[in-house]
Specification:
two-stranded antiparallel ribbon, ribosomal protein, Ribosomal_uS12, 9 strands, WASH complex subunit 5, mainly alpha, WASH_strumpellin, elongated
Length: about 1200
């Protein structure tokens, strides 16, 4: 008799009960529409989003506080004592302003200070204003809520609403966080100085709430460097009291925190040992808002006992906002009730027990995590089967990691001594890396399960129905080769099963799970039927169907809630600041084993969960600040990644140093011919083995970082190849900057030392470049391109910083367009009181070596010669050595720095001239100039010389200043000419095609400009928007094809009789000079102590007059020619008289005065860009040629 056929499970046609709502991430992300429909929630959400954005801006600005506002050096204190003032200014405003207004130098310094810092001061003021407005709006909201302004809303209804309660409590917390962070990141005295500086720049009229802002931001006396142990009395409760938050509301909020889980976190942490982690966010809120109601801290022991038992039963170091840590044993020391509650719970015995528990937990989770990470274990099927166990391990691992990481930073000495022998940072890092690796694998597998969930379900369902259909057909009469007797009841039963399998709906997970389980039970029961039990094939088919149905249950159990659970327990927002303490350990791990970089990628991704906390409310509010906030925190994370991985480029450069030492000093080249017996010795196999090992290490480190996949850190994608290149650039810049900074220092100011320093710099830079070229193929980078780009960027950056001394609005280091966060250029402390960087030292040393006080310039030798010995000091050889040491880009920026010096000298001199020559004095000078007779006639020379003498006597200081300016700019112009000449020669030798191309393009553009001015209607001017002109100018300057003598440095207004003043100064100076035939008939000073030089004088005069309209140059030449002609006429008359008296009398020689004037005009003609006929008209050619 056959077994009875079991009935199929009944079909469930009733509507499915709703599935459980997915667990929310802390805090739950309610839809934006849910907030916008309620004005209370919308206002609170906007307020909280503003708070997070303000904190991000505070963090951003705190990294860029100008050092002068800290007044850390005696120089800054002395220089800015009347400019940078704290709130003392508000008590005696008129007195402080009078001190500045009565001093011209202080007025100039104040103007320069404002130009430099005004934009940054405006941002700081906007920050302080936003903090004040946040507090004001928060207090106003509380008052309006209590007064019933919001219809159908009271304090109780807000605190009873799930979302509103979270937002309301967070708004109070963020207010306190802003105050604490402001006092920590921007110290009180600095805040006062920033506010007063902006107040003095703008005035009280434009700043509406300045009094209230100053009252809020007034210094509290708290010093972050000393910490909480030496804080002012009643800090920070008095500081929090400045906002005026209603205390009764804060008490109500504290009550909710004491009794409720407002973020529903306990569902993610079911174990009692995990409760402190589950309530960590509420604990941080509790820590902050207690300072708004300090009476609880002081005198409510029962409340504090309850709070400590709930939130701080085994943890006394907490993170209150994005990794900002506090040690409650230290912070709550002054508060009687809080201290008593902590001492009751946090006892040495409890700490010892907690440490033992955490140690056991650490060992256990490390064992479990390492077990899960065994190769090949973590598969999709394994994850589905063991998800509960894996999640439990992850919870325990993250709770243990959090506790150890935070409490290792405790400042309580007794407990620290108990902790540190048991746990170390190496333990924390090992657990962090392994946990992050497990989380990454689990998320990847589970995300794949979720994304393919529908396809897997359909595939399993289709396979099951096909098998059941085939079984039913077997019992319908048999198909295929297997002989099975017909059984209509089994056929009908299997077709009914097939219908039920087909009816299981994926969209109804609860009923689908129950149906599938009943179907599996029915198939197990039917297998006991005799006809089926005897058929191995049917039993195998049924086994396959049961397996498919089991997989369907597993598939339907893959839910988004599990991913949310994983994300919640893997949060690391508490480690935002602490993670930086583990950079050195991570770098050491990479150095020991380069392949660990791929594991660190998982750690970086785990750390990126920090971004979710500050951005969540901003995204919910759709705030316009979301991009800037996300970018700031993402950049911070990327900087952390770069800092960790920077060990790879550092190690590469260390290996480069060993390689270059090996290849340059130890390895010898093979001679062209050698004996066969000497081959082994010449091969130097041990050295070549060392070279191969070093090269292999370079490749290993490179492969280690390149194995890391692309990773999104917030809104920024981290490409490992880009990170490697940026790291190499950073290390290269560091090395180049350090070499140039350390070698280019000249304490003795002697030529020999200058040459030795240049040789040293050339040797070190050549070695660095050679080693960099050697490894470029092994690391897959374009070495020459990187070298040139970084050298160019480095040169421009240091030039920009050096030129700050010539500018009113200075460019801060972090504001520079040439600065790069990924590869920052270091700015070393100045080694002297004048120069900021090595470019300034090098340029000023070159100026000092060629100073007219001990050198004269000889055009014949193309060099500066010593005044006494007539030996060459600086010439072509030294400029060649300079080129070898600093390369093209640095020589080009030296040329540009000289241009800035010339422009600064000209601007300062013209300003003095305008200031010194007032209207009456200018009229006297004009009268004296007119008294010299019209330039076209030939008056008595005495008349001209008398006019010159009277003018010099009238304005001696002006003439002296003018000559000093002319000599200096002439000296600097000659240096520029030499630099341009060396660059031009190097370009023609090393890149002749580029040189000729630039020359041709320049000539073509000049021809276009000339054609435009001739026929403007038919020939267009090159467009001002076209980049060709500025780009060509930059290239021409780099290759030495610009002409410094034809350059206009400053745009000046006409100065009355400036040509006559230059003429007076030149004539006076020429009277103190003589011609030196040994150096090529150049003008030198008669007195060796007199710092005069003829060639710089001529070059300087030509350059100075070039800054004015060409009519001034023409007028100067006319006056000068008038004097020359007058002296020659007088000389001719005297010579004629003497020859008439006696025919035997020799013609007298030219007086020194005439010789100096004639020689000077010959020099001037070389450098003044004027037509030849302009000189010939004023100074007859036969006079110059005869001389």
């Amino acid at each position: 008799m056959s077994d009875p056929i079991p009935s199929p499970p009944p079909l469930e046609v009733s509507a499915e009960t709703p599935a459980a709502a997915p667990a929310a991430s802390p805090p739950p992300q309610a839809p934006v529409d849910q907030f916008s429909s309620d004005p209370v929630k919308q206002n609170l959400l906007n307020l909280v989003a503003r708070g997070h954005a303000t904190i991000a801006e505070m963090r951003r600005l705190s990294d860029h506080i100008p050092s002068v506002f800290k007044l850390e050096t005696k120089e800054d204190i002395q220089k800015y004592q009347y400019i940078i003032v704290d709130f003392r200014y508000l008590r005696q405003t008129d007195l402080w302003d009078q001190r500045v207004d009565s001093n011209i130098d202080l007025l100039d310094l104040m103007e320069e200070f404002r130009e430099t810092h005004l934009d940054l001061l405006a941002r700081f003021y906007a920050l302080f204003e936003s903090i004040y407005n946040y507090g004001k709006d928060l207090v106003m909201f509380c008052e309006q809520l209590k007064d019933g302004i919001y219809v159908s809303h009271t304090v109780e209804t807000v605190l009873n609403d799930f979302d509103a309660r979270q937002l309301f409590i967070e708004s109070i917390q963020l207010c306190g966080v802003m105050l604490l962070l402001m006092d920590t990141t921007i110290e009180g005295p600095v805040r006062e100085r920033l506010l007063i500086a902006y107040y003095r720049a703008k005035g009280p009229v434009e700043l509406v709430d300045v009094d209230q802002i100053c009252a809020l931001c007034r210094s509290t006396g708290f010093n972050p460097s000393l910490g909480w142990t030496k804080r002012p009395e009643k800090y920070p409760e008095d500081f929090f009291g400045r906002v005026g938050v209603p205390k009764d509301l804060v008490h109500l909020m504290l009550g909710r925190l004491r009794n409720e889980d407002i973020y529903l976190q306990l569902q993610f942490y079911p174990s009692p040992e995990q409760r402190p982690t589950a309530l960590a966010q509420m604990a941080s809120i509790c820590f902050i808002i207690l300072f708004f109601i300090p009476d609880v801290l002081y005198s409510q022991p029962s409340t504090m006992n309850e709070l400590v038992n709930r939130f701080f039963s085994d943890n006394w170091v907490i993170s209150y906002y994005m990794g900002q840590r506090v040690d409650l044993l230290q912070v709550w020391e002054p508060y009687k009730a809080a201290k008593q509650a902590m001492n009751t719970v946090i006892t040495p015995l409890l700490i010892q027990q907690t440490i033992e528990f955490r140690k056991h937990s650490y060992d256990q989770v490390m064992k479990e995590v390492n077990g899960y990470l065994s190769e090949g274990l973590m598969t999709e099927d394994y994850v589905v089967d063991h998800m509960v166990q894996i999640l439990t391990t992850l919870r325990n691992s993250n709770c243990t990691l959090r506790w150890i990481m935070l409490h290792l930073t405790t400042s309580y000495k007794k407990f620290a001594e108990m902790l540190r022998p048991v746990f170390s940072k190496d333990d924390v890092l090992a657990l962090m890396i392994q946990t992050a690796q497990l989380e990454l694998i689990l998320k990847k597998l589970y995300q794949n399960l979720l994304s393919t969930k529908q396809d897997r379900w359909d595939k399993l369902k289709t396979s099951s129905t096909q098998i059941i259909t085939e079984i039913a057909e077997f019992f319908a009469g048999g198909t295929g080769t297997t002989k099975i007797s017909k059984n209509e009841e089994l056929e009908k039963w299997f077709r009914e099963i097939n219908t039920q399998i087909a009816s299981v709906d994926y969209r109804e997970p609860n009923s689908a799970g129950r149906k599938t389980a009943k179907l599996i039970a029915a198939l197990e029961e039917v297998e006991q039927f005799q006809q089926i039990e005897q058929s191995l094939q049917i039993r195998q088919f049924l086994s396959d169907v049961r397996q498919n149905l089991t997989l369907m249950i597993r598939t339907i159990n893959c839910r988004e809630e599990t991913m949310i659970n994983i994300q919640v327990v893997s949060d690391m927002s508490y480690a935002w600041e602490t993670a930086a303490e583990y950079i050195a350990l991570m770098q050491h791990s990479i150095k020991q084993q380069a392949s660990i970089v791929s594991k660190l990628r998982a750690t970086f991704l785990k750390l990126s969960t920090m971004l979710e906390f500050p951005l969540m409310r901003i995204m919910q509010a759709n705030s316009p600040d979301k991009e800037s906030v996300a970018e700031y925190y993402s950049n911070r994370l990327v900087s952390f990644v770069r800092s960790v991985l920077q060990v790879v480029p550092i190690t590469l450069f260390e290996l480069m140093g060993q390689i270059i030492k090996l290849t340059t000093t130890e390895l010898r080249d093979f001679p062209p011919k050698f004996a066969k017996e000497a081959m082994r010795d010449l091969a130097q196999l041990p050295l070549r083995t060392r070279l191969a090992k070093l090269t292999h290490e370079v490749v290993s480190f490179t492969d280690g970082i390149l194995e890391m996949e692309k990773t999104n850190m917030g809104v920024i994608e981290v490409n490992p190849k880009v990170v490697l290149e940026e790291g190499v650039r950073k290390e290269l810049v560091q090395k180049m900057s350090l070499i140039l900074h350390t070698t280019l220092q000249f304490p003795t100011h002697k030529v020999g030392e200058f040459e030795d320093r240049l040789k040293s710099a050339a040797l070190q830079m050549a070695g660095l470049r050679a080693s960099f070229e050697y490894i470029q193929d092994y690391v897959g980078l374009y070495g020459l391109k990187i070298w040139q780009e970084e050298m160019q960027r480095l040169s421009n950056f240091y030039l920009e910083q050096e030129c700050n001394t010539f500018l009113k609005k200075r460019v801060f280091e972090w504001q520079s367009e040439f600065q790069n966060e990924a590869a920052p250029i270091p700015l070393f402390p100045p080694t002297d009181s004048i120069s900021t960087t090595f470019i300034g030292r090098l340029t000023r040393e070159l100026i000092e070596l060629t100073s007219p006080s001990h050198c004269v310039y000889s055009f014949r030798h193309t060099a500066w010669m010593d005044r006494q010995t007539r030996d060459e000091v600086v010439g072509v050889r030294l400029f060649t050595l300079l080129y070898n040491a600093v390369d093209v880009s640095l020589m080009a920026v030296m040329d540009r720095l000289l241009s800035f010096m010339i422009a600064s000298t000209l601007s300062r001199t013209t300003l003095i001239l305008k200031r010194e020559i007032d209207r009456s004095m200018g009229l006297n000078v004009l009268n004296l100039a007119s008294a010299a007779a019209p330039p076209g006639c030939v008056p008595d020379s005495n008349r001209i010389l008398n006019s010159v003498a009277q003018t010099f006597k009238l304005v001696p200081r002006v003439c002296a200043t003018l000559i000093d300016c002319i000599l200096r700019i002439g000296h600097l112009q000659l240096l520029r000419c030499h630099l341009q000449s060396r660059l031009r020669a190097a370009c023609k030798l090393e890149s002749s095609v580029l040189c000729e191309t630039l020359e041709t393009l320049n000539e073509a553009l000049l021809l276009d400009v000339e054609q435009h001015y001739r026929k403007p209607d038919t020939n267009a001017m090159p467009s001002a928007e076209s980049p060709i002109l500025p780009e060509l100018s930059r290239y021409l300057q780099m290759v030495g094809q610009s002409n410094p003598l034809s350059q206009v440095y400053v745009a000046t207004e006409p100065i009355a009789s400036i040509d006559f003043l230059v003429f007076v100064g030149i004539v006076d100076v020429l009277g103190r000079m003589q011609i030196d035939t040994s150096l090529g008939n150049i003008l030198v000073a008669r007195n060796i102590k007199d710092p005069l030089d003829g060639v710089p004088l001529a070059v300087g005069a030509a350059t100075f007059l070039k800054q004015f309209h060409s009519s001034f140059s023409t007028s100067f030449i006319e006056r000068y020619g008038q004097l020359v002609r007058a002296l020659y006429t007088e000389y001719g008359r005297n010579a004629l008289k003497e020859t008439e008296i006696s025919a035997k009398t020799k013609i007298p020689s030219l007086s020194p005065e005439i010789q100096n004037l004639t020689r000077f005009v010959m020099e001037l003609k070389k450098y003044m860009v004027l037509p030849d006929d302009a000189f010939d008209t004023c100074v007859p050619r036969h006079i110059v040629e005869s001389f």
